[in-house]
Design a protein that fits this description.
The protein is of the alpha+beta class. The chain folds into two domains: 86 residues, no CATH class; 67 residues, Alpha-Beta Plaits (2-Layer Sandwich). 35% of the residues lie in helices and 22% in strands. It contains five helices and seven strands. The strands form two sheets. Strands 5-6-4-7 form a four-stranded antiparallel β-sheet. Strands 1-2-3 form a three-stranded mixed β-sheet. The chain starts with 12 loop residues before the first helix and ends in a 7-residue tail after the last strand.
Length: 176
Amino acid sequence: MPRIKSFKDFVTEKDRAELVDTLAAELKNTQTIPSRQPLILEQELRQTKSIHVLVFWDRWGAIPREQRGSIIMDAYEKVEPDVINRILVAMGLTFEEAIEMNFLPYQIQTTISKEDPINPDDLKRALIEEGAVQTTRGLQLRLPTEPMAHAAYERLAKKFPGPYFAIAKTVARTDN
């Protein structure tokens, strides 16, 4: 097997710069509804004041995992250079990877039957507006926290009054 010491050849400098710029622009964004990608989650640990950053973005699929963290760090360097030394973890995952690793445990599921008076295209559009992504298991609206799931549920229930949605939580398996 060949030995590879540098991963720079996997992503062109132009593509890397575009990814950094897109993430930097998203860091400046104040939108609270995760209706588009990338979805950036920051968690500050009180005791150490360190920060963990998770970026869920399907564009990571074309980027080796080894490069994703440095792209995230470069974006923070552009926008919030004073925070850079406090970032302990910078991880980039596709939504599929995030679901598999249970970083998005809350799911809004539809309970709509064929008899219900809801246009499927309107429903799909509303789910996508809330941040649903196409996965190998179909369109899924997955969220990292319970408050985010309840907020999305409420917005969808206003658009489609009735018992058409449910919040489900995936519980991580522990093999004994």
